[in-house]
Each structure stands twice: as structure tokens, then as C-alpha cells.
Amino acid sequence: MWRNDYVRRMRESTVDMGHLIDGLLELGRVSRIDIRSDRIDLTELARATAKRLQELEPERSVRFVIGGGGEEQGDGPLLGAAIENLIGNAWKFTRDQPDACIEFGSIRNGGQTEYFVRDNGAGFDMAFASKLFGVFQRLHKQTEFPGTGVGLATVQRIIQRHGGRVWAEGKVGEGACFRFTLGNSTDARG
């Protein structure tokens, strides 16, 4: 009996290690690839991510509010990965919310466009906000919400490579809002 449990735990650990290695490889990849500069519609990237998540878990009832007007210059695959990570996190952390809502939009702030992904999920304590974008830094236990602790570090690296910045605001039990800006140019940043 104990052998089966031991083998099961070994398999689970192997799968977790595989996900972690994949995450680290992705972080390394986004740190060194050349950035292309194309016209990218971030709103369409957000819509595609929302659709993909809803198709993967059709039993979940999540209301998406996706605003328009998110065209930028940048690398489509990299910005797509950043949007997917941010909306994917919102999806994950609204899992226990019966009236889950995830919002993607933008506002003008000081002459610059500020994008955001907001949710009404688990949230986090702002006292630990500085840890969010570090590799292997998690604010929730693995047993509560699965993950590798690499996704937000990847988001930060992608946004920085596009000349922008990313930050977060949250409150335990009331959700989180991740905001980011992009620079005017993506030439030779790295």
C-alpha cells in the first residue's frame, strides 16, 4: 500500500519538475531572443486567451470584460505570452470565486497607455508585492494554487524588454490588478 503512494508522489514530483524546467527554459528564451517589432493588437491577444481558457474548462463560469483599443508596436509571440500569463493567473486565482470576473483594458495615464488585468479572486497581501515578480517566489501555497513561480518573472522580463514596466495591486480575498506599460520602441532592448 505504501509503495503505491510512494510511486504516485514520485510521478507527481516528476511532472512538477517538468513544468518547472519548461518555465525556466521559457524565461531564458524570452531573455535572449531578438525582439521583432510588429503592430500587435493586445485586445485580440486577450480575447484569444480568454477563449482558450473557456474551451479548456467549459464547466467554469467566468465573466470576461475585455476593452478595446490595445494596439502597440512589439513582438507578438512575446506579448502574447505575457498576456497569457497574466490572464492565466487571473483564471487560476478566481477558481474558488462563484461570480468570477476577469477584466483586460487600458487607461491613459500621464500621456502613456497603461494596460491592466484585473480579477476578483484570491488577491494577495500588498506587504509581499515585491516578491511577485521574482523567480520561485509564490504568495500562495502550491496546494492552494498550482504553479511554478516562474510565470510572473517571465512577464516582467517580456515587459522590460519592450521598454515598459509591470506592477501589481491586490487585497487578500478581493482580487488583484496587474498593470503594465510598454515603451515606444522595441529596438535592441535586452
Task: Write a concise synopsis of the structure shown.
By secondary structure, the chain is of the alpha+beta class.
Structure overview:
The chain has 190 residues and is α+β, with helices and mostly antiparallel strands. It has one domain (2-180): 2-Layer Sandwich (Heat Shock Protein 90). 39% of the residues lie in helices and 23% in strands. Helix 3 runs antiparallel to helix 4. The relative contact order is 0.17. Residues 19-25 and 185-190 have low confidence and may be disordered.
Present the secondary structure layout.
Elements: H1 2-32, E1 38-41, H2 42-56, E2 62-66, E3 71-74, H3 76-93, E4 100-109, E5 112-119, H4 151-161, E6 166-171, E7 175-180
Parallel strand pairs: 2-4
Antiparallel strand pairs: 1-3, 4-5, 5-7, 6-7
